[in-house]
Amino acid sequence: MPVEPLSRTEIESRLAELPGWTLDGDRLTRAYRLDSHIAAAAMVVHVARVQDELDHHSDLTLGYHTVSLSVHTHSAGGAVTEKDLELARRVEDLAPAHGAH
Ligand SMILES: C[C@H](O)[C@H](O)[C@H]1CNC2=NC(N)=NC(=O)C2=N1
Q1: Which atom of ligand 1 lies at the shortest distance from residue 57's CA?
Q2: Rounded CA gap, 59 and 79, in Å?
Q3: How far is CA 84 from CA 11, 22, 43, 64, 101, in A?
Q4: Which residue, among 70, 69, 55, 54, has the nearest Cα to 100 in the 3D structure?
Q5: Which pLDDT belongs to residue 1?
Q6: Phi (first) and psi of residue 77, to 5 degrees
Q7: Which residues line ligand 1 at a C-beta cut-off of 6 Å?
Q8: Chain segment 56-91, per-residue pLDDT in tens
Q9: Which atom of ligand 1 sits closest to the CA of residue 73?
Q10: Which of 3, 37, 58, 83 could disulfide-pair with 69, CB 3.0 to 4.6 Å?
Q11: For residues 72 and 55, what is the distance between their CA atoms, to the nearest angstrom?
């Protein structure tokens, strides 16, 4: 099923439920801070598992004590869609277990 691009207004109103996530150009982004590099690496693996489950993949960057995500929908011409919001929601759900903030 094709996914439709969301309007800027729709995205901005939906971001009210996703604190920390921002619309950066045509991408949803968020950076998390963790207590250690290993904790950050473990979160990356967890996010990667969820991304495969959803068949939707962000650019996922492991830093020293950080995990950064940037996502849009390739199949919608690089627009932000429901799929991006769903991934952001799922990452928010798993983040506290990793001590990410
Ligand atoms: C074939 C596979 O379903 C597609 O390539 C998926 C995989 N992951 C994806 N991830 C993202 N961010 N956008 C997509 O359009 C996309 N498409």
Answers
A1: 10
A2: 14
A3: 10, 12, 18, 25, 20
A4: 69
A5: 62
A6: 70, 20
A7: 55-57, 71, 73-75
A8: 999 999 999 999 999 999 999 999 999 999 999 999
A9: 13
A10: 58
A11: 13
DSSP, collapsed to helix, strand or coil, labels residue 87 as helix
- The pLDDT, as a whole number, for residue 55 is 98
Ligand 1 centroid – CA 21 distance (Å): 20
What count of residues does the chain have? Answer: 101
pTM (2 d.p.): 0.97
Contact 47, 32 (CB under 8 A): no
Q: How far is residue 56 CA from its own chain's centroid?
A: 10
Output the residue whose Cα is nearest ligand 1's atom 1: 55
Residue 2 predicted with pLDDT over 80? no
Pairwise CA distance, residues 36 & 26, whole Å: 30
Residue from 47, 55, 85 to probe ligand 1 pocket by mutation (most atoms less than 8 Å from CB): 55
